[in-house]
């Protein structure tokens, strides 16, 4: 029997990563942070001084970075050309540029294909995988057994992101989040959208453990 796929989409700071990791740990599944893949490609482009505003330059190099994604929820490693970039991909420079790079169709084509391979492997090897991003329920795994659209108020999302990055200026953090969401929701290729068949979970009033429990319950129902 095929393992389960749990697909989670949503805007920045909605708690997708913590939720997805928690669900994967609780059910012995693998975990894939697709945002980390777009960040890793962006990190590589910046490291090579590629002008990320130049769509053709980015597209030409989309397949060059060697991406090695760990799918263990306890320690999801990210390697580019052998280098551990798990920390570097969270820098403000990468965060500010990732939406431009992720809008380039060649980058998406390459990463979606790698994501589908990782999903298929997890389905064969273990009980399945929890995958989170912006286009998982719509493009990467539209047939997933569980499809969730995670949201929270802009204030709650900025607060969460601010705690993670130790940002002092919450208003600036919120402005940055909303700017990235605007770009991610309005790009031509695979924009962030909620489909009819994805369950919307508004998490502002819930703790992380409560949200994890809800998703685990949905997964148990689906299996
Ligand atoms: O999830 P995270 O905030 O780390 O994602 C970083 C960026 O990667 C997003 O703002 C978006 O531009 C891009 N992304 C995407 N498709 C995904 C996941 C992330 O375009 N499935």
Automatic annotation (TrEMBL):
Keywords assigned by UniProt, alphabetized: ATP-binding, Cytoplasm, Kinase, Nucleotide-binding, Transferase
Entry-linked InterPro entries: Cytidylate_kin, Cytidylate_kinase_dom, P-loop_NTPase
EC numbers: 2.7.4.25
Reaction(s) catalysed (UniProt annotation): CMP + ATP = CDP + ADP; dCMP + ATP = dCDP + ADP
Subcellular location as annotated: Cytoplasm
Residues annotated as signal peptide: none
Positions that bind ATP: 10-18
Name of the top EC class for this enzyme: transferase
One GO molecular-function entry: ATP binding
GO biological process: nucleobase-containing small molecule interconversion; pyrimidine nucleotide metabolic process
Chain residue ranges for the region called Disordered: 1-20
Chief location: cytoplasm
UniProt-listed SUPFAM superfamilies: P-loop containing nucleoside triphosphate hydrolases
KW Ribonucleoprotein (keyword) present: no
One Gene Ontology cellular component: cytosol
Domain Cytidylate kinase: 6-218
Family: Belongs to the cytidylate kinase family. Type 1 subfamily.
Name of the protein in question: Cytidylate kinase
Phylogenetic lineage: Bacteria, Bacillati, Actinomycetota, Actinomycetes, Streptosporangiales
Gene: cmk
